[in-house]
Amino acid sequence: MTRSLQNPIEKNYITTNHTRLIFRSAIASRFLVIALIILWRNLLSPYDTSASLNPNNCISSSSSNNGNSRHGINIRFPRIASAIEESIVWDGVYFVRIAECGGYEYEQSYAFLPLLPISISFLSTTVFAPLIPLIGHRAVLGLSGYVLNNVAFLFAAVYLYRLSLIVLKDPEAALRASILFCFNPASIYSEILYALLSIGGCHLMSGKSNYATLWLALSGSARSNGVLNAGYICFQTMD
User: Fold this and answer.
1) 155-168 mean pLDDT
2) In sequence order, what DSSP letters do the residues of 123-178 get, joined into one string?
3) Could you tell me if 197 and 219 are in contact, meaning their C-beta atoms sit under 8 angstroms apart?
4) Residue 7: how many CA atoms within 13 Å on its side-chain side?
5) CB under 8 Å, gap of 24 or more: what pairs does 170-175 form?
């Protein structure tokens, strides 16, 4: 039986407590994922060996590593740089390469949409720029991606709870759905930005916010299936 919250004070109290629990669970899940990555990389040889497939120079003459890779200059913490760079595998290789070279070099790279590379490139040249002399440019790009995805994940979990409250009208069901989301295995790469923008956009639509269109439009720059989110805007316009 669903629980309807008629008392605004009770509703705010439960929502606040649930939001804090979800936020803590999301943080715990991120530490768990990172711990498992470190554990298994130390116990077993990586199945994917694409981390080493990164030429030193970009094809474009206007974009390069700017001498900031650990191969270009003497950085202060080469072991940390190596650990971060070796953790860039699978699709992460493409995202980091696009950000590193300032664009697409090969045809297969077009499968990886630009929002994540643009975001990590921006972070690497602003917030994390002081770390470049310490660990190198490519490692900073990888670190930027880790931080961006994990922070986006926290907010995606909170927005999922808020949206579930509206749809399910059951705080306990919304809480369970959000906790399960925190510990699902598909929580890396561009899916996180896509989830945040899609879920957040749908939540903003409930308040008739003009920002909802922007969020849903940006989701299409994270993953190609984000174009389907235009259906929400069309439906709301027809309503």
Assistant:
1) 95
2) HHHTTTGGGHHHH-HHHHHHHHHHHHHHHHHHHHHHHHHHHHHHHH--HHHHHHHH
3) yes
4) 5
5) 170/2, 170/3, 171/3, 171/5, 171/14, 171/15, 171/18, 172/3, 173/2, 174/18, 175/18, 175/21, 175/22
Q: Please, what is the average pLDDT of the chain?
A: 85
Q: Please give the Cα distance from 49 to 151 (Å, whole number).
A: 27
Beta carbons within 10 angstroms of residue 114's beta carbon: 17
User: What are phi and psi for residue 237, nearest 5 degrees?
Assistant: -65, -35
For 79-108, write each residue's pLDDT tens digit.
Answer: 999 889 888 888 888 999 999 999 998 888
Report the distance separating Cα 183 and Cα 55, nearest Å.
Answer: 35
Q: 129, 71 in Cβ contact below 8 A?
A: no
